[in-house]
Write the C-alpha cells for this entry.
Amino acid sequence: MRAQYSTRSREQIAEILRSQHRYLSAAEVFDLLRKRGGKASLSTVYRTLDLMQSKGEASARTDDRGEASYVFCEPEHHHHHAICRSCGKVTDITCEVVEALADELLSHHKFQLDDHEMEFYGRCAACVG
C-alpha cells in the first residue's frame, strides 16, 4: 500500500522518488521538484526523504564524499537492489538464498541476524543491449 503524505509538497517529493528507479541525492530531488513546478524548500526535501526512510519507503546509502542518496522501496517485503553501473537504474530483487543463509546462521551457529543489506552491481537489460 502506498503511503499518503500530509502536504502536496511531500507527495510531490515522494512521487519523484517513486518514478525515478535510481538513487537520488536530496539536491537531485530538489532540482527535479523545481523543474516540475514544486515550491518546497531543500530542507523539506531532506525531511521528506528521512520520513520515507523511517517508514521503509526509501533506502539510503552514502557515497565516498559522505552524501546520502535515496531510492524508493516497497515497504511490504524485504528485498535487495540490483544497480546498473551504466544508467543507475535500481531494481528490487528478492533473494531466497540470502534468506536461507539467515536461517542457517540461526540453526547452525545460534546467531540471530537482525538485519542485512546487499547490493548487486552490473548492467540492466536496456544497457546490455
